[in-house]
Amino acid sequence: MTEPRHHHGVAGRQHESSQDLFDAAPSEFVHPNNAFQILWLLPQNLLIAGLKMYRALVSPLYGDVCKHFPTCSAYGLESLTRHGALRGLGLTVRRLLRCHPWAAGGIDRVPDGGRPFTSVEQLPKIVLLNHPTPEDRARLLASFAPAASSSPADHTTRQSSPAEPQVS
After folding, report:
1. Is residue 80 part of a domain?
2. Is the keyword Nucleotidyltransferase in the record (predicted)?
3. pLDDT at position 45, please?
């Protein structure tokens, strides 16, 4: 007698691959390549650390109360991760001002731009959480794709800091 075969279907494989992708995803912290970047990235990484502590210690006490997706703390973490300390903090404050008891809520994505990602494997954990579907991640990656008419040299100069930092 043969054993029954369990067929998970496409949805099962997609869930497993999404979990594997999340498990292997780099953290939100940006790792400097040189001494200058240590100072340049320090404010960004300190703000990221603060938000990660808030999400681990304080946010669970409130439960799921945010009317927006992603939640305000997830929005803040993604905006800091993608746009850096100054613009990320500005986007986060703007989002917090929109979040009040009379807000309609709904989907409120972090604006495109900022730190470029060229593959799904480069996306930090918070970006994967805030962009849960493969279609959503593909749209995000497409926003960083070079235009067909531009030369490769055009994209080597687009940096938020003097040298590209490494992401872990």
Report:
1. yes
2. no
3. 95
* Residues 6 or more apart in contact with residue 118 via CB below 8 angstroms: 141, 144
Q: Do the beta carbons of residue 164 and residue 33 sit within 8 Å?
A: yes
For residue 126, the one-letter residue type is I
CB atoms within 10 A of CB 151: 9
Our count of domains for the chain comes to 1
Q: Do residues 126 and 28 touch, judged by C-beta distance below 8 A? A: yes
pLDDT of residue 18: 75
Any domain includes 5? no
Helix H or strand E segment including 107:
strand 106-107
In terms of C-beta distances under 8 Å and separation of at least 24 residues, what long-range contacts does 135-141 make, across chains too? 140/112, 141/117
Domain that holds residue 62: 34-113
Note whether residue 22 is domain-resident. Answer: no
Instruction: Examine residue 44 and state whether it is found in any structural domain, yes or no.
Output: yes
Whole-model pTM?
0.74
DSSP string, 11-75: HHHHHHHHHHHHHHPPPSPEEPSSHHHHHHHHHHHHHHHHHHHHHHHTHHHH-S--SEES-HHHH
Measure CA 43 to chain center: 18
pLDDT tens profile 147-166:
544 444 443 333 444 445 55
Q: Which helix (H) or strand (E) holds 106?
A: strand 106-107
> pLDDT value at position 51?
96
